[in-house]
Batch of 2 targets.
Target 1
Amino acid sequence: MNVTLTGATGLIGARIVRALQARGDAVTVLSRDPERARAALGDIEAHAWQPLHEPAPSAALSGRDAVVHLAGESVAQRWTDASRRAIRESREIGTRNLISGIAPADPRPRALISASAVGYYGPRGDEPIAEAATSWPRSAWRGSARRPGLPSTGCAWPTCEPA
């Protein structure tokens, strides 16, 4: 398979890259810092992309079997008003800019996996809580790929890897 990932140097993304490479898939990553991505991930095709400022490069998305979108501001930080805004904007704007890069891709990727996370929001009584109603998961469905998917991950903790 030919797969493009965003967020490839993050906690989940780096493990996905290794797993895809181990099974022989061709992996391309979109990164704010392609040199840092290559240093962290080894010999990999890396394209520059500033997700808050520009559409994703269509050349890195055209003809892919899948695009896995994991990029976003880390949630592992103190949640201030500013960090909440940065987290939300990184997902809304980043997803919108990824879709803007996919739109002119020819052929468009066969699948888009745009990940999110589950969370605990405290006691809410009868108040409905639905992350799927937020703007960034919805934007991943709009004409992005033939098969969009929106997985929600639970808690992801780093572990020691065997030597």
Target 2
Amino acid sequence: MTVSGQIGSGKTTFVRGACRALGVEGAVTSPTYTIGHRYKGRVDVSHLDLFRFNGVSAAEWGDLEPYFDDAIVFVEWPEAGAGVLPPPRVEVRLEHGDEEQQRLVTIHGDVDPGLRHGD
């Protein structure tokens, strides 16, 4: 799943909520400076942040690839991995709304349109 949006739009907060829904109990933090985190929940979850990348080389892909093994993967700033990352099943776009704390969320991909939070 890719999670894109402006700085401060709530990408990591979105991933944190998804991790909670997937049974992750520990701290879920931004991997901006570590590139990736792996969490244990009901399923394994990987959280990648490509903010510092200007593209992904073959060598860098070698470092990222293990995060995709047997896990649900969330990738922040996926634009940097265009053409290298596996195609996402779901794309999430977060935007600032008109009000200070308002966020607009757009979801595209392999999702059930009838699924709602709490189902």
